UniProtKB/TrEMBL annotation:
Gene Ontology biological process terms from the UniProt entry: transmembrane transport
Location within or outside the cell: Cell membrane
Organism: Thalassorhabdomicrobium marinisediminis
InterPro entries, per database record: ABC_transporter_permease, MetI-like, MetI-like_sf
Gene3D superfamilies named among the record's database cross-references: MetI-like
Family (UniProt): Belongs to the binding-protein-dependent transport system permease family.
SUPFAM superfamilies noted in UniProt: MetI-like (SSF161098)
Protein keywords: Cell membrane, Membrane, Transmembrane, Transmembrane helix, Transport
GO cellular-component term (any): plasma membrane
Domain ABC transmembrane type-1: from-to ranges: 74-287
Name assigned to this protein: Sugar ABC transporter permease
CDD domains associated with the record: TM_PBP2
Length: 298
């Protein structure tokens, strides 16, 4: 009898939990996944300033890939992504190791590189736009010291402006990598370090050959998070360069938003957003494959 009452209470608690979560699940399905489905559907229509449910096949995708601006934005995504992810990993891992080794100024380093995480990319972009502006920023300051020949005009150079985004992005996100990797370093068994000291292995080699390979899942998480930032980068571009000079620093997210709100082309914007979604799915698929291959190794 007592068992039956306990089972009823358990069933009742389960039903209560399901009913409590149901509104959130329904809203998520409709607002999030429903929006994704609607966007994908719009990419196959002739929608312009208003939605039109006239099937157009792959016309919007053909038009998308014939746009020079989209080619620039898509290429910039790989340039920015490679340098941003690589830079964040290098600086983040180096900082994590420095903090793990208890270098002087450890607390200062932690504060200096963890503080930017609390800032939005809008704030970061505006700050770096001012700092790198040739007329009021770094170049003007150095020239005021008497170095009249000093030139640092990357922000106004179509060939170099994309690298200013990388500088700002790495400054913003290196602290995140540092925090994640530092937490991973804290989980390393002290016996491994003791064995390394007994064998006389230098610390640099221990990190390179033993510790960092053990942190591969942690580093993979960092890569996935950073890659997501690359795909959805919009606010940093808008705040720092506005996509310019010209369209030299355009990224897919800005291309999509501009076509949706400024050019009033829902179909083309939806096609671009769908391509971005596919890029995210590819990243997640590669991450899952790498994890599976790693687990399958003896």
């Amino acid at each position: 009898m007592a068992v039956g009452r306990a089972g009823k209470r358990k069933w009742s608690a389960g039903c209560t939990a399901v009913l409590t979560l149901m509104p959130t699940v329904v809203i998520c399905l409709i607002a999030y996944y429903g929006s994704i489905g609607w966007t994908i559907g719009m990419s196959f229509t002739t929608s312009g300033i208003l939605p039109k449910y006239e099937f157009a096949g792959f016309d919007q995708y053909i038009r998308l890939w014939s746009e020079p601006r989209w080619h620039t934005a898509f290429a910039n995504m790989f340039i920015f992504g490679a340098l941003y992810v690589g830079g964040c990993l290098v600086f983040g891992v180096a900082l994590a190791i420095a903090v793990d080794q208890g270098v002087r100024g450890r607390n200062f380093l932690q504060s200096l590189f963890l503080y930017p995480i609390a800032l939005s990319f809008i704030v970061t972009g505006l700050a770096w736009q001012w700092f790198l502006n040739p007329t009021v920023g770094l170049q003007a300051f150095v020239r005021s010291l008497g170095f009249e020949g000093f030139v640092f005009d990357w922000l106004s150079s179509p060939e170099k402006a994309i690298f200013t985004l990388v500088i700002a992005g790495v400054w913003q996100s290196s602290g995140l990598v540092m925090a994640i990797v530092y937490a991973g370093l804290g989980s390393i068994d002290s016996e491994i370090w003791r064995a390394g000291r007994v064998d006389g292995i230098p610390k640099v080699r221990m990190y390179r050959r033993v510790i960092l390979p053990m942190l591969t899942p942690v580093l993979l998480v960092c890569v996935v998070l950073l890659a997501m930032n690359v795909v959805k980068s919009y606010d940093l571009v808008v705040a720092m360069t506005g996509g310019g000079p010209g369209f030299s620093t355009d990224l897919p997210a800005k291309f999509v938003v501009d076509n949706l709100f400024q050019r009033a082309n829902i179909g083309l914007a939806s096609a671009g957003a769908t391509v971005m979604l596919l890029a995210v799915l590819v990243i997640l698929l590669l991450s899952a494959c790498i994890q599976r291959i790693r687990k399958a190794r003896p």
